[in-house]
Amino acid sequence: MLLDTWQKTTLNFRIYAYMQKFMKEYRLPAEEVRKIQFTRLKKLLCDVYQIYPFYRERFDGCQFNPFKMADLSDFKKVPILEKEDYRAFIKSQLEQDEKRYQNWYEDTTSGSTGIPLRILRNWDERAYMLAKWMRALFLNGYNWRDVTFSMPAPNHLQRDSVVQRFGLLKRYHVPFTDPVENKVDKYLKVNPSVVYANKTHLVQIALYCEKNKIKLPKPHLCISIAETMDERSRAVIGKCFGAESLMEAYGALEFSIIAWQTKGEDYFNICHTTDYLEVLDENGHDTNHGSCIITDLFIGSFPMIRYKLGDILNTEIKDGLPVIKKIIGRQDDAIIFADGEHMPWHIFAVILERQQEIKQFRVIQEDYDKIRIQVAKEPDADRLAVENAIITDLRQEVRDKDIEYIVDFVDHIPPDPNGKLRLLISKVN
After folding, report:
1. Over the chain (429 residues), what is each successive 10-residue block's mean pLDDT?
2. Is 190 exposed, middle or buried (0-12, 13-18, 19+ CB in 10 A)?
3. Domain span at residue 387?
4. CATH number of the domain to which 378 belongs
């Protein structure tokens, strides 16, 4: 209890200390980064083996001895941690002593791909997660005097800390559930130099301003978080907030930031000294296009060892280390036809993004043989021409026979209840 209180009280100091460490580790030579990864990973695995029966059983079951791990290839023996496994692990720890965690930081994932996941972190780990986020900001030109504007979930609204009351790291926010006109009014009042939000809400503001001929003052940094960026959304956001200020951050509630862009770059820097990222094919082999598997090197309270995040990534090697070239989307984002064929989501994205008149889109599979495409188009775009182009391309590149394509034109596509906008919804089990 006293340790929890002390960690929480000293949160800002801990954030600063972690951030200083991570800033120094940025752009280290690849060989040094790999040494840090191995050292931190082996220590974590040895600690986990001794503390948690859950992981001891998993390691023993695959004959993996963390104390004898000689290189990262040994780590491949450890089984993948599915969300269901992690949920069971958390439950088992809480059943032993739930009071221990009553003063910890707690959050819940949105559950967009299933049952929401309860996340618990001690306050030192919370500082670490925030430091990863702050590093991405500072490496993109953020400074202590910047004014930020964000649109978080209603349960993530924060009160000013001592730091904010001294005029540093000033922040303003509007819950994403507020009407878009409220968000725009608040933005105009605070005139922020930094804005960050889900891609969906940045698009929502941009489309509202375009429709109502409102010109927002452009920030020097606009950050899209929590959702995969598509080219149509990038164009809409860039037009409103400034294409030169736009960058993306890739992460998850379980980890905070996993990778981030630097303005002007077309790839994501991975947090190599804090997270060990693997990209695996369907057979569990390393690849440059596959499923994202993460091990966090600093979270020891509820460790995530080879955690399957569920995203598909494209990677390449730059300066001796992997970078993320493209985040394709969720692993379960696919159309399923009656004959069992799976059509990946990104094929639909490529087809729809090629239509310059489209501002927003969503694909809904209503049945094996029926796909509905919701489209918000430019006001002066020819509706029939857009519809014909979409259906022609879908028939040529997806499937022609025994399927009905329906194009619905809408003014805008509202966010889902979790604040995001799923670009593919399949109603097929």
Report:
1. 83 93 93 96 97 96 95 92 92 89 82 66 95 94 91 70 66 87 94 92 91 94 86 89 93 90 92 95 91 95 93 92 86 75 75 83 90 89 91 89 91 74 78
2. middle
3. 334-426
4. 3.30.300.30
